[in-house]
Design a protein that fits this description.
elongated; single chain; 189 residues; 7 helices; mainly alpha
């Protein structure tokens, strides 16, 4: 397993679910509501898993012995994107399922999420694969998969200030390295 591949697999599933919504007739509100319910929970969970597991590790590269200068700006941008995705998800609830307003709101989520995924795939994931060995990516994949499995019913959506997220995460990473912890899974906390 590789955390970057698990993230890509999640992205594929998100694209698939958006495509399904586009192909269901607006009058089939039960199907639309069910698939949207699954997708919206999945989007929130995916963002939370990335914020909990992937982005702290990307930021660790910014303070490593071979620093990755792009880690901080990529993370700040990604957390901002996650906030935008959360906000567009929340806006969907203001429209009757299947209505044009609902479809437009879902399309706005798709655009925000699609832009984020494309950027993440070009930048953060590619950088991570180049900098981090397969064993570490495997260990993170196990943690990522377990987080998503443990929270399959969803997580509470919470916007984060991207700058504060980076500062707090980097401070925690520095403290881990100073303590001698390996920073893996349950040993991290």
């Amino acid at each position: 397993m590789d955390i970057t591949q698990l993230i890509l697999d999640d992205h594929h599933e998100q694209r698939r679910l958006f495509a399904m919504l586009e192909q269901i007739d607006s009058s089939d509100t039960d199907a639309l509501a069910d698939i949207w319910g699954r997708l919206s929970v999945f989007l929130e969970l995916h963002a939370a898993a990335e914020e909990e597991i992937f982005y702290p590790e990307l930021l660790a590269l910014a303070i490593s012995s071979r620093p990755l200068a792009s880690a901080e700006p990529e993370t700040i941008d990604a957390i901002g994107d996650h906030n935008e995705i959360r906000d567009t998800i929340a806006a969907v609830a203001g429209h009757p399922v299947g209505s044009q307003g609902w479809r437009d709101a879902v399309a706005a989520v798709n655009v925000a999420n699609g832009d984020h995924m494309a950027e993440e795939e070009r930048e953060g994931l590619a950088d991570f694969r180049r900098q981090v060995g397969l064993q570490k990516r495997h260990e993170l994949a196990v943690t990522f998969a377990a987080f998503e499995a443990r929270n399959f019913a969803g997580v509470r959506p919470v916007d984060k200030d991207p700058q504060i997220y980076v500062l707090q995460t980097e401070a925690a990473e520095r403290a881990l390295h100073e303590s001698g912890s390996l920073g893996i899974g349950g040993l991290k906390r």
